[in-house]
Specification:
five-stranded mixed sheet; GMP Synthetase, Chain A, domain 3; Rossmann fold
Length: 554
């Protein structure tokens, strides 16, 4: 066993602390059908040392880049801790990454080795021929694949591990952003930036309490999931449970009974849609109006979702509409929005538990400076947990971090009490063919407030007026075309009454295809790829744009 490092500015310090203090208590819970494999802190420590020793034996040295290509599972965390122990730099990859992106990231990061774990057959099929020839590979334990060196061939349980002493300044990961445009960028984080972010967020994120249980289902290659779930559990000595598949999602969460649950807007919209398909809003309103019945219904919904023990329920990665937050409050689920990005390890602000204000991303964490630039309304931040920069991207780094300030690219405003509201992205602003600037996010939000709408995107850079594309939710698809047209027209008229002349919408177009990661219209972190949507629809929908109807259907 490694001795406890005296430096608490490394994540490894906290792992070794809990391994020493409670070696036999559960750390990871991996589902396989109806059973679970439980890994104690001692189990994870032993396996991680074997992995680190095996890497050392094969000649890999401190600072080498090692990729992790897998969906969330216990082995993902075990391999990542092994990389911390060996002083390697982890390069996590999304499980649904394209072959071209996988090749580009592995080449750009100069990764020398890759762990290949839990993957859908179709995801593996599309990337297996894109692995660069210079990258050595092995499967993770339990996820063997034809043509790839097996776990048994890789792991040498007798190898002698000699761990380098970790330093706060050591680089520990390159997080390649999922990116709504262009090639992903490799965000460099050190031990110090990771731990500083977790420590400053810990009080508001309720990490300074015993008995924390986390559920890991959003990609661990994303900074938010990795920071809150992996980092939060290691920092606080909590347990992580995993979701086996989409089909077992609710069952696994019910088994884990998380105290901390993190979702992105797409998840909350989907859960809301599923509830309303089973329990229509009119019927739900009647039940919630009856005092005794209301309490029972709220309890049943929370229990059915596995959230009846949750102390903190968070949303992040993109703005969640105020109306959806209020809707969840009406059924007894309190969602707290937080805000951050890969470049600051997703730590800038959060709604405090004692005063949650829907529609805002809360108040600032301590020990940082944040400003709103008057001309562009861009949010800039200075703190100890900013990234070192983008790997091999000196010019882009210098544009993003200037004089110690991170230029987030997000637009925001503070209210009198210091609550921050995100009002759009600087790069999402586009010009119509008349040269007028359009800020799409506030317009899209008003359509997303309808439970009948699943997705909305404002486009129109090639047109004199902007228009909005919408995808109906399950609730919306069950309603008549005439009713949906009235609802959409009402929202459009409200927007046009308030907006400037050049920001008035010409029309709403209802499109057939849902935007997903599979059709590459959403990023792996479930954000819209605005450029891809513009490219897909702007020319093909020209005839619909030019017809006189205010609501059109693809």
């Amino acid at each position: 066993m490694m001795e406890l490092s005296p430096n608490s500015n490394t994540l490894l310090f906290y792992f070794l602390k809990w391994e020493n203090e409670k070696p036999n208590e559960p750390f990871l819970k991996q589902p396989f059908g109806d059973s679970y494999t439980i890994y104690s802190w001692a189990d994870v420590g032993r396996l991680s040392r074997q992995i680190a020793a095996s890497l050392q034996q094969k000649g890999f040295q401190k600072g080498d880049r090692i990729a992790i290509y897998s969906a969330n599972c216990a082995q993902w965390i075990i391999c990542d801790i092994a990389l911390l122990m060996g002083g390697y730099i982890s390069v996590p990859l999304y499980a649904n990454v394209s072959g071209e992106s996988l090749h580009a990231i592995l080449t750009h990061s100069e990764s020398k080795f890759m762990f290949i774990g839990k993957l859908k057959p179709e995801d593996w099929k599309q990337v297996k021929d894109y692995i660069p020839t210079g990258v050595t590979t092995t499967t993770m334990d339990g996820y063997d694949r034809n043509g790839i060196s097996s776990w048994q061939q890789f792991l040498d349980p007798n190898a002698n591990f000699k761990g380098p002493e970790p330093s706060p300044e050591d680089r520990v990961t390159f997080i390649y952003t999922s990116g709504t445009t262009g090639m992903p960028k490799g965000v460099i984080h050190s031990n110090k930036s990771l731990v500083s972010a977790i420590k400053v967020a810990a009080p508001m994120a309720m990490l300074n309490q015993p008995g924390n249980r986390f559920v890991s289902y959003l990609p661990l290659s994303h900074a938010a999931e990795r920071g809150l779930v992996e980092g939060g559990s290691i920092y606080s000595g909590g347990t992580i449970g995993f979701v086996e598949s989409l089909e077992s999602f609710v069952k696994n969460i019910q088994n884990i009974q998380p105290t901390h649950f993190f979702g992105v807007p797409r998840i909350w919209e989907k859960i809301q849609g599923n509830i309303l398909e089973k329990l229509p809003q009119k019927k739900l309103n009647i039940l919630l109006s009856l005092p005794i019945v209301s309490s029972y219904i709220k309890y049943k919904i929370r229990k059915s979702l596995g959230l009846n023990k949750a102390k903190i329920i968070l949303s992040g990665a993109a703005p969640l509409s105020r109306e959806i937050i209020l809707w969840y409050q009406s059924i007894g689920i309190t969602i707290r929005e937080a805000y951050g990005m890969s470049e600051n390890y997703n730590v800038l602000s959060m709604n405090p538990p004692e005063d949650i204000r829907p529609g805002t991303v809360g108040i600032l964490y301590p020990d940082q400076e944040v400003k709103i630039l008057p001309k562009t309304q861009e949010i800039i931040q200075k703190c100890d947990w900013l990234m070192e920069g983008y790997y091999k991207e000196k010019e882009l780094t210098e544009k993003t971090i200037r004089d110690g300030w991170l230029y987030t690219g997000d637009m925001g405003k503070f209210d009198a009490d210091g609550y921050l509201t995100i009002i759009g992205r600087v790069k999402d602003i586009f010009k119509t063919s008349k040269g007028e600037y359009i800020t799409p996010a506030p317009i899209e939000q008003q359509f997303n407030n309808l439970v009948e709408i699943d997705q909305a995107c404002v486009v129109g850079s090639k047109y004199t007026q902007p228009f909005v594309l919408v995808v109906l939710s399950g609730v919306g698809r069950k309603k008549s075309k005439q009713l949906m047209e009235r609802l959409l027209l009402n929202v459009m008229e409200q927007i046009n009454q308030k907006g400037s002349r050049y920001q008035k919408l010409k029309k709403v177009i209802v499109v057939k295809e849902e935007w997903t990661t599979e059709n590459e219209l959403l990023t792996p972190s479930l954000k819209m790829k605005r450029n891809a949507l513009t490219e897909k629809y702007e020319d093909t929908l020209r005839l619909l744009y030019e017809n006189p109807e205010k609501i059109s259907w693809e």
